[in-house]
Amino acid sequence: MKTLFTTSLFLLFGIMSFGQQIKGSELLDKAIKYHDPQHKWETFNGTFHVTMETPNSSNRNSKISINLPEEHFYLKAKKDTVVTEYDVKKEACTNTLNGNTDLSNQVLKAHNLSCERAYLYKNYYTYLYGLPMKLKDEGTIINDVVEQKSFKGKAYLVIQVTYDVSVGKDVWHFYFNPKTYAMEVYQFYKTDDKGSIKKDSGEYILLTDEEIVNGIKMPKTRAWFYNKDDAYLGTDILN
Length: 239
Description:
By secondary structure, this protein is of the alpha+beta class. Helix content is about 20%, strand content about 40%.
């Protein structure tokens, strides 16, 4: 027991010492090297499928295509008998419901179909599945201070990320494995009018397992929870 305790202290202080030496931007570079060792994200052109599981609801199965060089995004989602499609090519947008593109305003509203929502999905999926590489985007502010935190019983190196006001107001924390630099958790909080974090807001996302898509190590499973009470929201499964 004494040997185990001593070893644990040694590992803990080793992580703390390293965290005090490395800067946030340097930790991010190491994480990107782990997830995208061949720098594939900048020219990403690929398709993947995601199953979304939510409590007391049927699954939503999505096919997602992202072509960064061509500025093309496509999402086809099926839930029960309803199939919706969003196709964004640069500034052009097409919405489809059960194979039909000739939709009345009433039908568009009833199924929440719009170009605004298409752009929202484009940004959402490109951001989440482009992490941590997307943290290099313009307007992203990486805090130079690397923290050592324990989350759900595991030790992590953590960076705080904020954004220019033109990009967003949320405050994000990204948790990296101190040995491999794999991204394993991220968490965000809302802020008030003064820019202070609302402690009872936001969510945290636990990442488990990996899938390699076009040479990039992407998290296979993302489980979403509220920060305020750990309530489970749902899980996205890459398949």
